[in-house]
Amino acid sequence: MISVQNLTKMFGSQAAVDGLSFEIPAGQIVGFLGPNGAGKSTTLKMLTGMIEPTSGSATVAGCDLRTQVIEVKRRVGFVPESGAVFESLTGLEYLEMVAALYGIPQAAALARIRQFIAFFDLSFATLTDKLLGAYSKGMRRKVVITAALLHNPPVVFFDEPLDGLDANAAVGFKTLIQTLAREGRTIVYSSHILDVVERVCDRVIIIDKGKLLLDGRPETLVAQHQSGTLEHLFTSLTGGAELEQRAADFAKTFRA
Amino acid sequence: MNADPAAPPPQKPARTPEQTLRHLFLTLFLRGRSARGLQKSGVPQSVGKKLAWTLILYAAIGCIALVFRHQPVFALSLYLHGMTLMFLGMFVAASAGEVLFNQQEADILLHRPVAPRALLWAKIAVLVQISLWLAGAFNLAGLFAGISAANGGWLYPPVHALSTVLEALFCTGSVVLMYQLCLRWFGRERLDGLMTTAQVLLAITVVAGGQIVPRMMGQFGDLSRLATDSWWLPLLPPAWFAGLDDALAGSGHGSSWLLAAVGLAVTGTILWLAFGKLANDYVAGLQAIGETSPAAPAARARRCWVGRLTAVPPLSWWLHDSVSRASFQLTVAYLLRDRDMKLRIYPGIAPMLVMPFIMLLQGHGMNGRQGGQGMGGFGIAFAGAYLGLIPMLALSMIQYSQHWQAADLFRAAPLASPGALYHGARRAVLLCLVLPLVAVFGLLAWLLGGGAGTNLLLLLPGLILVPLYALIPGLGGRAIPLSQSTESAKSAGRGLRMIWVMLSSFAVAGIASWFWSIGWFWPFLLVETLVVAGLYALLRHWVNTTRWPSME
Question: Which terminus of chain B is more solvent-facing, meaning fewer CB atoms within 10 Å of its CB: N or C?
Fold first, then answer.
């Protein structure tokens, strides 16, 4: 479903993504991990057609990223990390606008919106009467997730999707993506909450400084590196090994 | 003896919380609060440098005061205080809402051990401080002009400096007081809407006043005839402060003393109310600002209105493309509801309307009811052509928003070109802003022409250009609605394009009035229509086929 070959993105002389290659089949949930500045968001923006790769190639849902970028966009959903929305629209206006951008007829869009708001336990009155600027962060995130899934895409990219969601909504969301994957959709899930990734994802891809570090099933990788948890494995790979020492040094400053 | 290299460097004494807050708000204000949206290279490297350029610009504009150097003190001061009040009014009206009531700031600061009253004082101090810098720069040349004024002298600079400080306090105090009264009388729920309306009206008033008052003063011809005892002068705040200058460093007339006394009394009362009596209302407002605001019932009605409008002909034909329709509805929603957008668009457009309005009136004045001959015909034709600048300006401004990150949605959507998005925004501007203005100007032209159609015909050559001009901001994939941070608006270079369009409007108006005078107006109108239609098709194709500009 996703095939990436030597994907590279240069910003000036700096490589944000440096020769990344991987394959993701349909129906898989893949955790896409890396420390801050590793190139995760840039990779996701390339794979959603928002920015052009400097070199390399990729196909998403059978469409070439360079020659069929509009077809790629038609087939992917994206929840960006910012979770930004047009705050002077009501929730319903925002979702209807998204539906229009994807050419979904209004009646069909409304039916899907009703399904999503029922799933997220939102009231229709809230969606029609309140401007998004007055929504809580969690409610806004629910609207953004709904917007990403409204056109029923076979591939969905989530960048920190749980940010702001309450515990119930987070559990519901995890169940939702597992259901979507069972139906054959490909989910790419970028997050810093590693225990959730470990529980939800079939596979993880860890990158740092734009390069691929590890790719495999979470339990296999943890066992191979004798790390105990994905979190330990991640910190040992990405320069977080001396965190305990740093924390101890930090605590000393308060004793001085 | 060398100092011990291992010894810690001498520590600066810590700033007091009040100093820290003042420094924080000053830095935030000068850098802009949306700096996160800038590329690294766009972040201001030096706050001082940016401020210095602003002050130099104000000082340069202030040099116009040298024209008044041989006029009486009162006339010079009336000009200086009028213009200062306009600049400060614009600045404080545009800044006060963001400075005083910022939701993110409440999240960052209200849990700190800082008294809300200290926050208010720090913010007011910053507003007053910057107001004084701007006023000082603008009045610099005026201080020297006052020395050589007809009844001026060396006492003028210190006296005018004092009156300028009072005016800055009056201006800041008035705006802060307006906010506090809104908060007290109408509550948090309606504060946003009321403040937006009040700021828009205030900004429009000061800009329009700034355009009209100098022209009114020009009507006096000999400014020495401008008497301080005119009955209407106590109604104008700049006259109070000009009266103070004239009382202490000019003629010393009793009427000037009276004006000065009114100014001192009003300023004192406003400061007492704004910074003392009503300060507690600010504290309550700041605490409430972080609370989730309730449903906005008006939003639903407006949505229905816009939704219904686009669902029926002729709008449904005009907006048959779903992307254009979505962009149209988005733009209309922002033009009606978004406080930041309204504060940029309407006060930005207001001064642009003053010029065609004056041209229309002057055109009528020269024209009488004789039928558009000579300069009168040109004035009316120019008023029509000048309206073409409105959609250009509005569309250039609509691309900036505090919610610009949400526009990533447009890039993620399957759209080969931003053209359809631009067309939606363009149509929203044409329908919601330009059409009402054309109707108002048309009605005015018709009334001034005594009900005859002559003036309306003379407006036509300019109005034909409006759809063409409205395409210009979208060339090259630019002006995608709400896609740029508001910070980048400050550095946007729109001036050159506007000057070209203004010159072409001037040329079209001139040619149209000439053809009118020789009786060839209708053939000219036909040729103009054909040329504009050709250019329109060309530019529209260009907008439609332009690819997305790079995000990098």
Answer: N
